[in-house]
Structure formats: structure tokens, C-alpha cells
Amino acid sequence: MTRSVLISGGGIAGPSLAYWLGASGYAVTVVERAPGLRTSGAAPVDFRGDQLALLERMGVLGDIRASQTGMGDQTVIDASGRRLSTFPSALFSGDVEIERGDLARILYDRSAGAAEYAFGNHITGMTQDEDGANVTFAHGAPRRFDLVVGADGLHSAVRRLAFGGESRFRHDLGLAVAGFDVPNTFGLDHGGLIYNEPGRFVMVTSGRDRARAAVCLMFTTSLPDYDWRDIDGQKRIVAEHFADVGWQAPALLAALRDAPELYFDTISQIRLGRWSAGRVVLLGDAAWCTGPGGNGTGHAMLGAYTLAGELALAGGDHEAAYRRYEQLMRPPVTKSQKTAAGAGRFLTPATERRIRNRNRTFRILSSRAMTGLFGWLAKRTANTGSLRDYPLHGSRGPVAVGQPSPR
Ligand SMILES: Cc1cc2nc3c(=O)[nH]c(=O)nc-3n(C[C@H](O)[C@H](O)[C@H](O)COP(=O)(O)OP(=O)(O)OC[C@H]3O[C@@H](n4cnc5c(N)ncnc54)[C@H](O)[C@@H]3O)c2cc1C
After folding, report:
1. Is any atom of ligand 1 closer than 6 Å to the C-beta of 349?
2. Among the four 33, 119, 243, 394, which has the fewest Cβ within 10 Å?
3. Residue nearest to atom 15 of ligand 1 (CA)
């Protein structure tokens, strides 16, 4: 009998899982809160080391390479624009880097034939019994599923419904981040500029589309809970924290006022004792959000592959599959969370002296003699060992997900 699965969240983890389960014959429904696929936004995500084998196995490496940013080094500058140091491309851009919007489109395209997507909707309630889970939605009739997966990110609704309020699991790293696009008036060509003042980080990059530049503003803060739907309020918070910052910050803040889209959030980790409860399981940022430099995208996709693979091996025993998936994914994400916890100190040093020390360290690390060590450092949380083999359609040879899975 065909088993049905509801995936909440159509970001990175959700479509990846939809692909693997849909190709394996599950009846997959993905419910995504956003009204459509968000392909805008130049914020880049990257893959490195062992993660490339997974992209190959999923059949998306070629598409990802075709859309890669081709980002080069990032130049650290002072307030007058003078070069102080360089962050090699391996640090921020890994082996292949792609804008998050482009990746989301590729994963959606790869999975759309194998899953039913419902945009502009979200779960409002969920109850479980021995044989299934009853789910209610903001729009449309209630439905029953065999399994429910929360792939709905840092502020997961599935996690809240199945495990409890976010504040119990969210650990803020003392930073907030804002991301938006501006016209590339910086003359950047596959590269970026980084400017720091104590507790503040400004990065402007331009890759594939030389007309646009992605701005990332990061700052140390102990933000109380803010309204994550109040974009004007968020713009005010950013403007307050960067009001006295030099270099091009005033021009960027002026551009922020009119920016049609803003990504804004605290930089946080999710730490949960268990990722499953009965028929419900969490995946990606909803389960283990790692934070900056924590390979969040690669782990979300590896987690999707591992979860689908363990479900295939367990032959219907979802609880055994969930346990094994958690055993396998805990070690790499725990390691990444440890690494990411220190990233704030690195990106936004608290004093001028620490900024100078960091830049000096990078001058040494990025020297030719240290390239090997640098490459190892940059890949160490991505290299999780060789990919496990699972009896998944598509794990060997071509996958026919162009046709809908049997329902
Ligand atoms: C500024 C920034 C830069 C980053 N840079 C990198 C990087 O360079 N490399 C890297 O590997 N990772 C990076 N990451 C992390 C990476 O983006 C995430 O780890 C990754 O996207 C996790 O995928 P996910 O599918 O679990 O969550 P998300 O990508 O957050 O997707 C969750 C989806 O769920 C949807 N959703 C939310 N609530 C609901 C609901 N109630 N119902 C239905 N749908 C819902 C959202 O709209 C979204 O589409 C970065 C993150 C940020 C914020």
C-alpha cells in the first residue's frame, strides 16, 4: 500500500526529501507557507568536500554547477576602502556556491514531478493515533497522513505542535543578520568586500549577476523576541545598529529603506533531545539549525537522503528509521554546531584589537604555504565520510522522477 507523507516546508530540506521519497513510491505532499517559490535573493549557500557526492547522486550537481556564483576571494577593507586582508573563496564559497534562490528552484524542479506542492498554506493543528496523523491547514480540508516531517526551518510550526514552544529549543548566538540586494555600484566581479567595526560586519558580494550585489549585515545583539513579520520594524533595528558605522554603510542603509525584500533573523541554533515524536520527525534547520559556517544546506540535504534511506531500509517501521536517522545525523550536526558557535567571534570581533588580530591571522592562513591547512579547515565539518548506500531509486543510476509517483 502506498504510504503518504506530509512535508511542512518547501525550502531546501523539504524538496530534497520530497524527491527521494517521491521517487521511492511515497505519496508526498509539501505544504509551503510562502505563496510561491522564492527565487529572488542573492544570498549564497555553498557545498564542499563529501557533499558533492550527494549532489551527484541526486542528479543536481550539473544544474548547480551551471548556476554557480563562481565567487572569488573576499577582500577585507578599512573605512577608506584600502585592502587589509583576504578571506580565500574556500572559506565562504566552498567548492561550489549557488544563490539560495537558484538552489531552491533546482530542488523544486527535481522533485515537482514526484510530489504535490501546496504553496501559500500551512499546518494549523496535528493529532496522532496508532495508524496515522490528522492534520488541519489554514486553507482547505483536514487530511490524514502516515508520516509528517517538519522541514519548516528555524521557526518550525511542526516542532511547536509536536514538541513545544520555540523558546525551549532556540539558543541565540548573540548575533542578528540582515540580507538584501542592492544594485552593484561597487564594481564587484565575482568577489566581495568585508568591512568590520566592533560588533558589526558588513559584506557586499556579487557573483553570477554582475548587475546585483548581495548585502549581509551582521551585528552582535541580545535581541528580545521581535515580530518577524514586521519588515519596517526590522529595518529600523538594523538602521539603529549601523547608524554610526563608516565606509559605505550609510549608502547601504539608504538602500535598505527601499529594499522590497529583507531577510532578517537572529543567528540561532536549535538543540533538541530528540527529533521525532511518534509519526512526526524534524529535518534540517527545524531539527538542528547550526548557525553560520555550519553547513546548514549540506546537512539539510544529507539529512533528507539519510531519512529517506533509513525509511526504505526499515520496511515500514518508521520509528526504527527515525532512530537510525538521528543516530547518523547527530554527530555531524553536533560538530557543526560547535564550529558555528565560534563563528560570531570570527565574523564580528568585539574590539578593534580583535579585528586586527583576525585580519593578521588570515593574512598568514591565506598565504601560499598554508593553503593545504586552510582547505582542511574549511571542509572539516562537511566531510562526514563516504555516502551510505540505500535502496533508493536514484541512488544508483538515473532516476525517473519526471513521472508522478503512484498514488
Ligand atoms: C544569511 C544566511 C546565510 C547562510 N549561508 C549559508 C551558507 O553559505 N552555506 C550553508 O550551507 N548554509 C547557509 N545558511 C543556512 C541555510 O540557509 C539553512 O541551513 C538551510 O536553508 C536549511 O534548509 P531548511 O530547508 O531546513 O530550512 P529553510 O531553507 O529555512 O526552509 C524552510 C522553509 O519552510 C517554510 N516555512 C516556514 N514556516 C512554515 C510553516 N509554518 N508551514 C510551511 N512552511 C513553512 C519557509 O518559508 C521555508 O521555505 C545560511 C543561512 C542564512 C540565514
Report:
1. no
2. 243
3. 296
